[in-house]
Design a protein that fits this description.
Length: 682
Amino acid sequence: MRTSPRPPVTPGRTAPSPDPSRSSQPPALSGPSTSSLPHRTLPVRRRALAVLSTVLLCATACAGPQPDPSAKPAPEPTGPVPGVVRNAPLHAVDPGLVAAARDLPETYPGSAPRKDDPTARVTLGRASPGDEDYRHGSVGLSLESTDLADPRLGEDNHDLVSILQSLHEPTLRFGGNSTDRRFFFTSTDEPIPTNWPLAKGEKITKVTPADLERVAALAHRTGTSVILSANLARYDPDRAADLAAHARATFGDRLVGLMIGNEPNGFHRGSDDPLNVKGPEWNRTVYARQLTAYARAVHRKVPHLRIVAPGAYSDPWWEVAAEAPGTAPFALALHQYPLSECGTRWTRQKPTVTNAVAPQTRERVDALVSRARSVADEHRVPLWITETSLSSCPGGNQITETLAAAVYQADYSVRVQALAAERVTAHSSLGPCHGGPPMSPLCSDGTVGSPGERFGLRANGLALALIASIPQGTMTPARTGSEDLTAFAVTHADGSTSLVLSDFRDPATAGPRTTTVTTPGPVQRVTQSQLRGGSWRATAPVRATAPVRGAADAPGSPDGATAEEQATDDAAPGATSSYPADPRVHLSVENALRSSADGAVSVDGYGLPITPPADRPEVAGVRSGATSFAVSLPAGTTTVLTIETEHATARPSATASPSGDGTPTPKATPGVPRATTRSGGQ
């Protein structure tokens, strides 16, 4: 039984709401939502109405029959959670209320071991002084620098607020290829340059201090840390310093670093490469000199702002960036896309499902991150992965939007933190679900030419949110004897442990596997949350489409839903009659209570919000006081187990975020053994 059960909440019930004329509008709140509490002003209104009725009765006693003054007004309509207005955005509602309304079972379905199933073992060790920290909020998103000018990126976009809050104080990095090719910052309203070389169809985007202020409001509201980038290709250290000064004034301490350029190792790729921004004279020596000039100009305006570089996947560029004079404080930035061989040169690095789940891909991840960590350790600077995804190949392929990419992303996000990466941001886009970059964890409604304002998460976005739900702690040893099962453990201050298990067997062909977990101390209770889908090619039903007014107005949703299906999305779950959805909000309580279709990628059968650890179903058959337990894990899943010990002081909570400084102290031993497999094609 749960130690702190919530009262049952039935979807579709009604309760008083503040104002019927606004009942379809989400509350505009900057902190914890008062809409998650029962509305308390209605009794006062009722007393006032009773007094008014008495006065009218006395004044018009002879006017004929009067209404009964004791009659109560009909309750005003609310959403499916009592006390919460309908169409309320997720960020305004306690996730525990949503979890209660989902009516999750006490015991996780299918978690009980079955006779004759295959078996696996996981052994947990104890935390030691040499273990790496796990920083709640270290998982985040990377966007293009030009996205700073997108008016949708602000605190009034309810979906983006909900997404960032679901990542629990994440890092939001602005960079990408646009930084050195199309990004122009000006604080004096200068005209856009006309002499920059641009590829066909490209245009320069002007970003101003007003844009920074809009994004800063979003960052402050969601507790987000921000990394900005300066254009290095158009050499202008003073402009970078001006950007840094205005960013510090608007973001304050939430500005944790300024990147100087993006992937300078790719500024010149050969005479005919369309991504060239420098000529053949460009080399590491020139880069180091310019990096120093930028850093010194920035520090004259904003002393002690962390310089972040090089954002590259090449060892020599890491070394030259870390050794450039005048850059302290400094963070070493790594970019990694392990399956970006879009042609046929390296078969094992093509974006296929087979490669996405292969142990060799994880070995290459370990090898590259370990080499970067060695450089960071040598220079006593933090390691940040400021841009990553499973692949950077354009367009759709076997892995885009799939369960295979999601399980990889979940494993990667915790794996690299065990290897001492303090921040990791998955490269993303504000583009539409249909036609936008398919590897982006989030996407919007609308079209490429006219993106909409409603946002949802793809399968890899759900994976990020699941990992981000793990509270701060210490990475502790976790061993598994199977190459298709990975295990990472985080021990928390209250004595509990979060165990992340990723099963890389094919869900279409392999059945459940009984996994026995051995712990260093007695266990009291274990809860579970699980990312899963019907096959490696399964996708998440991203419903970020605008409400359907009629079949003629429904161009089709990104997940292939018909107009009728989309109309169903806008109905209140469990209600006897539907009401119109708010056209500005996709991530609403109503949609959060709609379970995902069978076989679709989901977390516990739903999308956001991820159920808080205290509200998750328990693993079946755990004996209090035992030092081991068994759980049945389906193939093709990432499972987070919250293991509570007999002496836990409290349940894990989300209270911490990465420090602004982030300079690591020397570690006696690494968090996990370093791989020796050589990395290639990164």
